[in-house]
Amino acid sequence: MPRDHKTPPIQKIAKQACITYRVPKSSADVSDSRSELISPVTTVRVADLKIAPRKSKPSSGAARLQSPPVTYMHICETEVFSMGVFLLRPGASMPLHDHPDMNGNLRSC
Fold first, then answer.
1. C-alpha Rg value of the chain to the nearest Å
2. Per the record's keyword annotation, is Ribonucleoprotein included, yes or no (predicted)?
3. Fewer Cβ in 10 A, N or C end of the chain?
């Protein structure tokens, strides 16, 4: 299979997150930097994450009921930022909550 040598979207996001959150900046610089971070976040697709659904036994309806409604997939962590993906089963939700002194970029696919 030939490689297209394009930088994967997740790597683009990680690189920009490092730039955005690395050092304190003026408010104008932070705004520009966050815009640069939001752009690749909005273009990432589920397929870019290379996630395959869990394989369950065909006769196991109970297995689906026992699987967690929300799963966290850790992608990377540096001194500057942490990146992960929350995978929600259809119909699942996460309660609104606060992380003081933390920034987040969210995307629903």
1. 17
2. no
3. N
pTM: 0.70
Contact 40, 12 (CB under 8 A): yes
Contact 9, 44 (CB under 8 A): yes
The confidence band for 6, taking pLDDT boundaries of 50, 70 and 90, is confident
Contact 14, 31 (CB under 8 A): no
Question: Is the CB of residue 62 less than 8 Å from the CB of residue 49?
Answer: no
Using an 8 Å Cβ cutoff, are 75 and 82 in contact?
no
- Among 7, 12, 18, 3, smallest CA distance to 82 is for 18
**55-93 tens-digit pLDDT:** 666 555 555 567 788 888 899 999 888 999 888 888 998
